[in-house]
Specification:
Strand order of the largest sheet: 2-4-3
Number of domains: 1
Structural class: alpha/beta
Largest sheet: 3 strands, mixed
Helix content: 25-40%
Distance between the termini: 42 Å
Length: 118
């Protein structure tokens, strides 16, 4: 019997969930990126965190972060190079519990940055 999948903690959902070519977008192949894959790109490439820091924030092993990051980068590259539409949806995640009240949330990097807590 396989182990149950662990929920990955995600700070915030992406504001824009679909990217793609401007012209002939209805004719292009679609790539699905999970919310957790998006979160690893956000944490590591945008926020500048390493795998260990990202794994702590998301509540999973460093090897899980590496796997998510690798698949996210491949999907992103495929979308950019081959002109495919990229949709961010689905996955096995749990949204930050204090996303509505960011004054209470001290663990998510995006909430600390918004309030000057670093």
């Amino acid at each position: 019997m396989p182990r149950p999948r662990k929920f990955k903690k995600v700070c915030t959902l992406p504001q824009i969930k679909e990217y793609g070519p401007i012209y002939n977008s209805h004719e292009t192949e679609c790539i699905i990126m999970s919310v957790e894959e998006y979160e690893t790109i956000r944490l590591m490439d945008f926020e500048g965190l390493n795998q260990q820091q990202s794994s702590k924030l998301m509540g999973v092993a460093r090897s899980t972060i590496q796997r998510l990051y690798d698949t996210a980068r491949k999907k992103l590259a495929d979308s950019l190079i081959n002109g495919k539409t990229l949709k961010i949806q689905g996955g096995n995640y749990k949204l930050c519990s204090d996303v509505q009240n960011t004054d209470k949330c001290n663990t998510c990097i995006c909430h600390r940055h918004r309030h000057g807590r670093n």
